[in-house]
Prior knowledge:
34% of the residues lie in helices and 19% in strands. The chain contains 15 helices and 17 strands. Strand 4 (89-92) and strand 5 (98-103) form a beta hairpin.
Amino acid sequence: MGRIIKIKIAKPFLPLISTNKRIKLYWGGRGGGKSYAFADALLLKGLEKKLLIACVREIQDTIKDSVHRLLSDRIEFYDLKEYEVKESEIVNTLNGTRFIFKGLRNQDAHKIKSLEGVDIVWIEEAQTITKKSWEILSPTIRKDGSEIWISMNREEENDPLWVLLGSHQDERTLIEKVNFYDNPFCPEELKLQAKECLAHDESTYRHIWLGEPLSQGAHKLIDAGLVKHAMQPKISESTSPLIIGLDVARFGDDQTVFCLRKGRKCLSFLSFEKKDNVEVANIATNLIETKRPLRIFLDAGGVGGGVFDILKDRGFKDIIRGVNFGSKAINEERYANRRAEMWDHLRQWLTEEVELPNNGMLYDELCTVRKKYDALGRLLLEEKEEIKKRIGRSTDWADALALTFAEPVYDKGHTRFYGNGQVCLEEMFQASNQRMPVW
Ligand SMILES: Nc1ncnc2c1ncn2[C@@H]1O[C@H](COP(=O)(O)OP(=O)(O)O)[C@@H](O)[C@H]1O
Ligand SMILES: [Mg+2]
């Protein structure tokens, strides 16, 4: 005997159950009803027929991070006895529908094969999904008629999934914006919070409650346009001295990165995973012997200190300089610490006609770092740990580049600069027999 179940789904979300689309992307601010509607719609679909439903997100360390709890609450609320909630799965014991839960970070194509039979995948908090995760996931969802449901609060202008999908609406893609005022079930308390936020800080309101990406420039240290411009080739050769920045990995999954820069041209990056201090020191030694850098700046806080000591023992103390990101800035009045100072010199450098290798990872890292100011009004950057939580990895490449700006380097005679002002300045220095500082 049939049972009548009344599930209320707000109007903007009806296409979740009434149409077939390869991609259904819902975006907007807090309280739009996305999570509830997705959960309810999936539970309903899973009652109608046997489906394999995967609920994924970028990072899922434990099942608690997933929508498992929300689905269980909705099952209880509607009293859906068909569903049995297990520790890491939810199963419809009548028709065999299964909900599974997975984090995409660090999954390789092989491990994610278990998703090949999936009918619907729900990507929750999709603003945090990396391009890499998407490239592994999307071809895996290959069953005929399979759908990809995406719920996201926009984080930044260039959220990878937004760049890939949001701007390419076609007949296979549904894109829908929903905010709290579109949600007929939005609690009064949330509406009040939104109102208070608007009264205090409009830009935060637009981000949190209207789901708009954080505006470029307002919170970011480096403007994306500058980085784009720098990534266009424009300098054939630089005769400036070679400076190397070395960021030594501090966490297991970080990379050890060398950045090679000559004046206005950043030549290349070398990156390594899982190298011990001696191996890193050996690579540095090789670079010193073959490329003759004027200076190597290395992050000497934490594990970097070990590499620094080895290189010093090998007699390279004139070439290497240890830099502690957290220590006092050279210009203490403007910068809260060395890290902010180096990054700001990097930012200034980017406002000139400079050249960077065209690399997507470097681009993302440079554009992601947020700026703030301390109580004394000095520039401070978003903590490394915060960035890591937000984007899922460390800004190793950009830190290596920033390290090349740790101190001005003095070089007698060899420097050649591009741009009139710089050449004049250099000649002046030479004429007065002073040494020209090179950042
Ligand atoms: N179908 C629904 N029935 C009852 N309350 C709902 C429903 N949909 C949303 N809500 C209420 O609206 C709030 C915000 O919805 P939520 O799905 O968390 O929004 P979002 O995921 O877009 O931030 C929920 O906390 C809940 O109180
Ligand atoms: Mg939500």
